[in-house]
Amino acid sequence: MRRQPSSPLVLLLAACSLAAAPAAPAATPPASAPRQTVTVAPPAPDDRIHAAAEALAPKLVELRRDLHMHPELGNRETRTGALLAERLRALGIEVRYPVARTGVLAVLRGGRPGRTAALRADIDALPIQETNDVPYKSRVSGVKHACGHDGHATIVLGVAEVLSGLRSELPGTVVFLFQPAEEGPPEGEDGGALLMMKEGALIDPPVDAVFGLHADPLLDAGTVGWATGPIFASSDTFRITVAGKSTHGALPHTGLDPIPVAADLIEALQPLVSRETDARSPKILTIGTIQGGSRFNIIADKVSMDGTIRTLDEAVRIDLKTRMDRTVRGIAAAHGTTATLAWIGASNPALINDAALTRASLPALRRACGSDHVVEVPPQMAAEDFAHLARRVPGFYLKLGVRNEKRGITAMLHTAAFDLDEAALPLGVRALANVVWDFNAGPASETR
Ligand SMILES: [Zn+2]
Ligand SMILES: [Zn+2]
Fold it and tell me: Which end of the chain is more exposed for a tag (fewer CB within 10 A), N or C?
């Protein structure tokens, strides 16, 4: 993102005037109190963060539209990654690129001591044909930013620009993670948050907490949603393969028909959700595809079924998998055949917002957005690979309202008609900048 001609000067003057002000006096503990090294950091410069974010609004829209017009699928975000790396370098931020194939890891070191926060944005698009008739319509046939990742990348780059303009006052370090392949890498490739971590994210430099946000078409633009504990579900993909023995459809006793076995399995798996596991913990078992047989009068030689399970609790996730395995083997055995249950593709644990980190972040969010616009939201059964990052260090993941009913912006994520209200972009910058600033200024032990 290029700076507006006037913004560096304004920010520089503002930074100088604050730098010249006397530092806040350090708290002196009473003589009897145990000695602690507590640094009292000055409060976040909310007004200047807000002003800088608002001043960036036209550039945020421009970048978001650029990314939207040039969407790239997971692990193929070469233009996107290079563009982000170039703009971060132009801000004078240390840049490591490429990371995890097409991602970017950038480090902004503040002028004051403090903790280290990571801010993550995903950058991949989806194989969906855009149907919106807008000037910034996707120019890539069959590919579209239908999950709002163009907005996420724009917002996190916006935070980098705002905070780099205030770097002399910024406590601690902020690590910006622009992550490829959140929607899952192509078959046979690794990628996403796990590969980012494998290539140094959260470790080099070491990070105390990780933050991020997702566009939410269920929330009005101007609103931010939070949850403590689970905010997105775990996701695991399974394939059940039932073995059969092909024969003539009129002589089934001479073969082994896997289709009734599959039918029994579908019936037998749902009670694991409705009868066998605690109803107070949400979970889903979906069979999305069934494939078997080639002709009406031929007994199939096998049936395979693919599906997904979602949970909000790791113990429930493990328990459900164990019960599925038992059920698949047992039902097949009852029919005198065998069936296998395989876990395939990328999987995600539930995304758990750290309770202490969430609590500590709410004041910053309320200052950024106004108390009335910060709402608690229920968890969703969709999944997010940010969950892997939030398992390594405490994490806080927000939902950013992007809905605007008056303008007809109501389509859900992962649809051909999804769009976001760009008025949400500067709000996202303010929210994340405030949250990260407060975190970095906090005492070192708070979330450890
Ligand atoms: Zn998505
Ligand atoms: Zn997404």
Answer: C
Peptide bond connecting 34 to the previous residue in cis, omega within 30 degrees of 0: no
Average pLDDT over residues 129-141: 97
Which residue, chain included where needed, has tokens 């601690």? 172
CATH of domain 41-232+351-441: 3.40.630.10
Q: What is the pLDDT of residues 407-420, one digit of tens each?
A: 999 999 999 999 99
Measure 295 CA to ligand 1 centroid, in angstroms: 37
Give the pTM: 0.88
Give the start-to-end residue ranges of the domains of the chain: 41-232+351-441, 235-348
Question: How much distance in Å is there from the Cα of 329 to the middle of ligand 2?
Answer: 35
Ligand nearest to the CA of 126: 1
DSSP string, 316-383: HHHHHHHHHHHHHHHHHHHTTS-EEEEEEEEEE--EEE-HHHHHHHHHHHHHHH-GGGEEE---BSS-
pLDDT of res. 445: 54
Q: Which CATH class is domain 235-348?
A: alpha beta
183 CA distance to ligand 2 centroid (A)? 7
Going from the Cα of 407 to the center of ligand 1, the distance in angstroms, rounded, reads: 23
Which residues keep their CB under 5 angstroms from ion ligand 2?
147
Compute, in angstroms, the gap from residue 147 CA to the centroid of ligand 1: 5
Q: How far is the CA of 228 from the centre of ligand 1 (A)?
A: 21
DSSP string, 141-205: TT-B--SSHHHHHHHHHHHHHHHHTTTTT-EEEEEEEEES-TT-PPTT---HHHHHHHTTTTTTT
